Amino acid sequence: MINVPELFGSNVFNDDVMKEKLPKPVYKSLKKTINDGDPLDESMANAVAHAMKEWAIEMGCTHYTHWFQPLTGITAEKHDSFITPDGDGKVIMTFSGKELIKGEPDASSFPNGGIRATFEARGYTAWDPTSPVFAKDGTLYIPTAFASYTGEVLDKKTPLLRSMQFLSKEAVRILKLFGKDDVNRVITTVGAEQEYFLIDKNMYDARPDLIFTGRTLFGAKAPKGQELDDHYFGAIKTRVAEFMAELDRELWSYGILSKTKHNEVAPSQHEVAPIYATTNVAVDNNELLMELLKKTAEKFDLVCLLHEKPFAGVNGSGKHNNWSMFTNTGENLLKPGKNPSENTQFLLFLAAIVKAVDEYQDLLRISVASAGNDHRLGANEAPPSIMSVFLGDDLTAVVDSIEIGEEHESEGKVTMDLGVEVLPSLKKDTTDRNRTSPFAFTGNRFEFRMLGSSVNVATPNTVLNTIVAEELKEFADQLEKVKDFKRAAKRLIVRTFKKHDRIIFNGDNYSEDWVHEAERRGLLNLKSVPMAVKHYLDEKNIRLFTENGVFTREELMARYEVDLETYAKLINIEAHTMLDMAKKDIIPAVTAYVKELTDTALAKKALSADIPVVLETELITDLSQKLVCFSNKITELENDLIKAGEFESDIQEYADFYCDTVFADMQALRAICDDMETETASDYWPYPSYGEMLFGV
Ligand code: ADP
Ligand code: MG
């Protein structure tokens, strides 16, 4: 039997440990920083470091690391041991406050978009005391923020913390107007639902494309996909169930509130979701969760794929970012209450969000932009690259009535009778679910659904917090000046909804009609990374970030460049992997099969001219023609890869070329290959098939 309460957080320097190991005044002061956002009292750093080290050694640690989130999209860590020479040829274990607070990793080898030249490589990491320290694989992990010597941030964490601070400040201003003087802090919360694929390790090892790029670059559809809807919520296979149980144990030990697990739509696809936490903790937890998914899979001879689109033709993987705002007094600001139409405070926050999404559609889209996610957005399992807000019928009716100035009586929860006496009667929600909206109100939070499965959730939340805070700021600026606040607030709500109602859409986001309708409404449809990321540099966006201290102009420019550079590099790696596979494995395989067919035909003919060789001849002709075509496409791709070099001096043109030309070449190459795969004997095909991979566990 496993004792979950005891296991939970056992690898974390948690509250119990802190209480036990820290001197009382130090404990109290640290808790004030963690809970109330008070500035860190650095004079107590030595005491905290000492306690952490003692605990870490008990946990079997010999090293510590400043754990940070550079723009590579994965976490980074450099391990230092606790040893110090004692002067007599021996060592003692030490860890100082200075070492806890500040680290100095070399900044030059991380993507920085030209901010840092290699000769000025200095970078700093700074301890984030609001996210818990943990012990893993013999090392004490300290969550940190990462910046360059000159202070430009080079990570995903710092802007997130800045955006949380900005949102807190503006939300508190609004709440003061409602007379909530006891509120001095507002935090944002995130619950990130994580999708992933699990495949057998042997199959993975036989696919260079999975190894180098995380997705299959070739592969004909299996005879069966997800058309029967028999995987979603289906019974979990034993091997997978054992993996999930082990994963839960791991997650709980690191204090991650793993709650829900189930099979997803595509074969071999699954989901895990924790209970929500304060945003920066949720971000760290999700980064750790992705790592633990991969590590745990290895124990079962499985590989966890976090790519957004590992397999063509079946669903890709996303991450749903459930987001809301809470006051330090425990009030969820996105809870509509029994009668939302009378809940001015709720409606004001709602109006700010609707306005924010409308005015900053581009930024929300950018915040989820990646080469992998381009395969999903717009394909039919993920919301398209068009932003819109789903409010549901009830809330939309409230908004409509506000717009025309009538009262709307909310239905509240309705009881549903299942017609069987022994079954309990259920309270049903006033709105049905809408699975197709990129940004859906789900009762007490918004669910941002455009995120790809591998993304660091820091960036989408940085944008979300910043744009909402900006609108709250604008509202507060106006409302603080008026005499009759309640009346002015109501009028502001009406004005805002009227002006921004084009962004509200409750219909089917996957339909072709919506694409046209959205265009008519003037909404953006940014289909690719290069198209989206360009908008980082729109004057309105630069102003938003710089005026509110979330990014400097240089930091924004850096992010723009890093995003485009990363995109071009990824497509480049994919293209080269394809060429390698095509030339070294696929052409030889098909040629060998053609040779066998030819040998057979010749042998038959030698035996007797009467034996028909029509089948062989047809196949030989067909495959030979396709091989020529395939080889031509290889040449085209190779030529375009050379041509790409001409654009290198302009990062936008460079990325555009990869998107419009190189990627198109790759698609064409794949199409012929997949066609040949269906005609080639499996014994000859060099890679595990889709059927084997998707149904092999
Ligand atoms: P569904 O699959 O129906 O969207 P799940 O229960 O799988 O729902 O996931 C919902 C996620 O939303 C969970 O991570 C949950 O903790 C989170 N969540 C619930 N309330 C809030 C909130 N107020 N703020 C942020 N996240 C929330
Ligand atoms: Mg969900």
What does this structure look like?
By secondary structure, this protein is an alpha+beta fold. The chain has 3 domains: about 5-155, Glutamine synthetase, N-terminal domain (Ubiquitin-like (UB roll), Roll), CATH 3.10.20; about 160-550, 2-Layer Sandwich (Creatine Kinase, Chain A, domain 2), CATH 3.30.590.10; about 565-695, Up-down Bundle (Four Helix Bundle (Hemerythrin (Met), subunit A)). Helix content is about 50%, strand content about 15%. The chain is built from 23 helices and 18 strands. The strands form 4 sheets. Strands 9, 10, 11, 12, 13, 14, 17 and 18 form an 8-stranded antiparallel sheet that branches. Helix 20 runs antiparallel to helix 21. The longest helix is centred in the C-terminal third of the chain and has 55 residues, at about 555-605. The radius of gyration is 28 Å and the shape is globular. It starts with a helix and ends with a helix. Magnesium ion binds next to loops. Adenosine-5'-diphosphate binds next to strand 9, strand 11 and strand 14.
Q: With helices defined by DSSP (H or I, 4 residues minimum), what is the helix count?
A: 23
Q: If you consult CATH, what is the topology of the largest domain?
A: Creatine Kinase, Chain A, domain 2
Number of domains: 3
- Report the portion of residues in β strands: 5-15%
Please give the share of residues in helix.
Answer: 40-55%
Q: Please state the second-level CATH architecture of the largest domain.
A: 2-Layer Sandwich
Q: How many β-strands, per DSSP?
A: 18
CATH superfamily of the largest domain: Glutamine synthetase/guanido kinase, catalytic domain
Shape: globular
Q: CATH first level of the largest domain: which class?
A: Alpha Beta
Task: List the bound ligands.
Answer: adenosine-5'-diphosphate, magnesium ion
Structural class: alpha+beta
| Major sheet characteristics | 8 strands, antiparallel
Spans where pLDDT lies below 50 across 5 or more residues: none
